[in-house]
Amino acid sequence: MLEILTTEQMYDADRKTIEAGTPGDVLMENAGTAVVDEITSRWSPRSATVLCGPGNNGGDGFVIARLLRNAGWSVRLGLLCDVDKLTGDAALNAKRWDGAVERLSPALLVGAELIVDCLFGAGLARVIDGEIADLVHTVNAGNVPLIAVDVPTGVDGNTGEIRGVAIKANLTVTFCRAKPGHYLLPGRVLCGELVIRDIGIADQTVRDIRPTLMRNDPACWRAGIHWPDLDGHKYHRGHLLAVGGATMTGATRLVARAARRVGAGLLTVVAEPAALPVYASDSPGIMTAPIANLDELLKDCRHNAVVIGPGFGIGDETRSRIIQLLHYCRCTVLDADALTSFSEQPSTLFFAIQGPTVLTPHEGEFARLFPDIEGDKLTRARAAAKRSGATVLIKGADTVIAAPDGRAAISVINAPWLATAGSGDVLSGIIGGLMAQGMDMFDAACMAVWLHARAGADIGPGLIAEDIPKHLPVLLGELWRSLPK
Ligand SMILES: NC(=O)C1=CN([C@@H]2O[C@H](COP(=O)(O)OP(=O)(O)OC[C@H]3O[C@@H](n4cnc5c(N)ncnc54)[C@H](O)[C@@H]3O)[C@@H](O)[C@H]2O)[C@@H](O)CC1
Ligand SMILES: [K+]
């Protein structure tokens, strides 16, 4: 269930399943049954109100109302339109509901101890306003469990954006596979707990749709990890050059710690001579070299990966260093100052990118480098990757990673503790360390985001950036032990 389907792809999967012989009303019955399962396993029978819209999301609501009543719940149902306006499976299930169909109004909420939101799902086509918007506000202001069916009403399934107003659910039950809007902010928060339930759509049907978007999970990139061979030596594990700042040395010290922990065979910090003792004294296992030698170092193909940007400074020197090093087509991570230095001339950077390159902007850096690219985070990451020829990783609570070939992944681990100084430097170091070992750039970016997020979630409150590299052996051990032996 790692694939994430757009609403259009989900409609396609529904259609193909129906064409292959499973009637639509069976899918709807399965959907309603799944929601009722999730509700009754969490809450004891009580007074529930089901809010139904004019489409199939409302159709699910009629199934849910019937099944909850059969389970001994007291149920009221409100419908947004006249019942004779319903069509297809929704109309069929309205006939199967023998309770009252009330007009949708705030009066329906009085005495409700649980509310089921079946107003709009995948078919949300425009901004919610007027009476429906007022109702959504009233529902959100209440203090009873709120269960959204498919997506919380008002959340755009493809983007996670709010169209007008949106329900803030405690639980969202969706079907077959998640949609981007379940994981992208603000949709991710509005969903509450997310449960994905099978409703009888075959895995092969999903595969046939060829989804290119995944939840970022080890299953997506585990096979691409370059574990050391029994008879291997450090030179087989790559030699990363971490280009450090002359004064802001902390950032590249974090890069170096992370890259070494994740397995880079050798690591050299390249910086102004005056700063080298600071780097050298941080850890006896690193090497140092003066930045004047960078070109010479890059001519030696054993130096196969570079991280530049954290703490390096913004300006002409940074730009020319980067253009110079990109010429060698080494695996490259460009972060922080490396990105901001190209704000005025981003196309110079994109033109120079030829080898495997990962850009790791936060939202501010992204806007400076791609000022004309707009839309939701996923759309923007994909457009930026296509334009730059690099893998683009937009950081945040809903980190998105996109490759130039169209593949993309969304991080689904909640780790708010990562919002701390130096955390991004560690991420760059992990990516660089993985690429130095030969991992594909997109896989390396995805794996790094996963390790980083898991470290954040595991360490929790009190986390500082220095803790993340130290936690990597635990997570790498977990991945290592999960390999089929
Ligand atoms: N066979 C299928 O396709 C299945 C569909 N299922 C359910 O069907 C849903 C999709 O059904 P639909 O495509 O009918 O879409 P929806 O039920 O989400 O809504 C479509 C209807 O809402 C109206 N509408 C859209 N935005 C509006 C707005 N802002 N204000 C007022 N009216 C608005 C549209 O004109 C249309 O009448 C899914 O979310 C899921 O819950 C499930 O039953 C599983 C099977
Ligand atoms: K809904």
From TrEMBL:
EC number(s) from the headed UniProt entry: 4.2.1.136, 5.1.99.6
Record's protein name: Bifunctional NAD(P)H-hydrate repair enzyme
Listed CDD domains: YXKO-related (cd01171)
Quaternary structure and interacting proteins, as annotated: Homotetramer.
SUPFAM superfamilies the UniProt entry points to: Ribokinase-like, YjeF N-terminal domain-like
Record: residues binding AMP: K395, G396, A397, D398, T399, G424
BP terms from Gene Ontology: metabolite repair; nicotinamide nucleotide metabolic process
Cofactor: Mg(2+); K(+)
Catalytic activity: (6S)-NADPHX + ADP = AMP + phosphate + NADPH + H(+); (6R)-NADPHX = (6S)-NADPHX; (6S)-NADHX + ADP = AMP + phosphate + NADH + H(+); (6R)-NADHX = (6S)-NADHX
